[in-house]
Design brief:
11-stranded mixed beta sheet; alpha+beta; 2 domains; flat; 399 residues; 3-stranded antiparallel beta sheet
């Protein structure tokens, strides 16, 4: 994330240290610094806040500062990344405008209007229900830009798309949503062992159709012992995204629009959520450890491979001893534009297709319903062309 020092942590339990990321925020009025209005929302296309009353544009917070991963010793957890308590969705806010008490169901919304003075109240305190993360990235890509990206994505795949989808496709219904993620930093020591091969000779044996290429390979024991700092490893913190089922929907495409510019993440501010949907985190750190550890192993192997490029016949890593010296877990809201389309197949089964746009970088990926007859026709045409080329080559050889 950043190389600045972390805030002074308060120890919550023997095995982890909690970093207070609430910045002293409190629930209630979140006012424009110029006129005091609470009518504040994200300005389209900039990621900055704008007052709807005086039109003042401002940035609420500087990027959140966290420790350099290389300096982590022990486990640190952001106060917004703590374990979820199921019965903490109802929050009572005292309006600083008129003194009335307003109940907000944070499972549905993080803001509400006072029913007496009509001021906008927002939940800023981190409550243990996964609704308030440590940090967020504001929407930077406007809805119009996202629509253009989605339309361009579909246009490249129109030939293979089924006719019903092409008839019904429209980007009018795309939705901006903050999706919950867990951002992990790690300070590690890795000891990886395996086998590696180096090609010493390449030659051909046999003749005609029996001709083949033979490689002489020397095989070596290989080991790599190194320190590794992982910065901003980002994993989804919504349980339905962790369970991938292509038979029901294609939400696995959410992973393909990474990475986000986590280094620019700011402390949570409810004003940035106005006008967008937000999905509440419903997983705890222990639910994500297996996935994170698997990705850490992948990163460690990739790092080791970069130091062993002379082994051109491949490397097989057989054992990893990864010592975790320190980790840091931070809950984040990251912005995504989503298009969805429900495909009803001939057998009555349904498949929900998604196209997602990273609302920071514009990276776009998704799926569209395919025309199976057209796909088979193209496949047959390719095989036919390959067959004709093969026949022409054989004829040329015989002549």
């Amino acid at each position: 994330m950043s190389t600045q020092a972390i805030p002074a942590p308060a120890t919550q339990q023997p095995t982890a240290t909690v970093i207070d990321t609430s910045s002293g925020q409190r629930d209630g009025l979140n006012k424009c610094p110029r006129c005091g209005s609470t009518e504040i929302a994200t300005q389209p296309g900039t990621g900055r806040l704008q007052c709807h009353h005086c039109r003042y544009v401002f940035e609420e917070e500087a990027p959140m500062a966290f420790a350099d991963p290389k300096e982590l010793v022990g486990e640190f957890i952001g106060s917004g990344a703590g374990n979820i308590t199921a019965d903490s969705s109802q929050v009572t806010i005292k309006c600083q405008g008129c003194g009335a008490e307003v109940v907000v169901n944070t499972a549905e919304s993080m803001t509400s209007r006072c029913h007496w003075c009509r001021q906008v109240l927002s939940v800023e305190n981190q409550i243990p229900n996964g609704a308030v993360p440590d940090v967020l990235l504001p929407f930077k890509l406007s809805k119009e830009q996202a629509r253009e990206n989605i339309e361009a994505f579909v246009k490249k795949r129109t030939f293979y798309a089924n006719s019903q989808f092409k008839k019904e496709f429209t980007t009018e219904n795309i939705i901006g949503v903050f999706l919950p993620y867990m951002v992990v930093d790690a300070n590690l020591h890795c000891d990886i062992r395996g086998k590696a091969g180096h090609i010493t000779r390449k030659y051909s044996v046999g003749t005609g159709n029996n001709k083949r290429t033979v490689y002489d390979i020397d095989v070596y024991d290989i080991g790599r012992d190194f320190d590794l700092a992982i910065d901003n490893l980002t994993v989804e913190a919504s349980s339905d995204k962790l369970t991938v089922s292509n038979k029901v929907n294609t939400n696995n495409i959410i992973n393909t629009i990474l990475p986000f510019d986590i280094e620019n993440a700011i402390p949570y501010n409810g004003n940035y959520l106005k006008g967008f949907n937000s999905e509440r985190r419903d997983t705890n750190i222990d639910d994500l450890r297996g996935l994170v550890n698997a990705q850490i192993r992948d990163v460690s192997r990739f790092s080791a491979n970069r130091t062993a490029r002379k082994y051109d016949a491949g490397i097989k890593w057989e054992s990893e001893d990864i010592n975790t010296k320190g980790t840091q877990w931070v809950a984040a809201y990251l912005p995504v534009w989503l298009y969805s389309y429900m495909q009803v197949k001939g057998d009555g089964k349904k498949l929900l297709h998604y196209i997602a746009v990273n609302a920071r970088t514009g990276e776009t990926m998704g799926s569209v319903p395919l025309s199976i007859p057209r796909l088979l026709l193209v496949s047959f045409a390719i095989e036919l062309v390959a067959l004709v080329v093969a026949i022409l080559i054989i004829v040329a050889v015989l002549l």
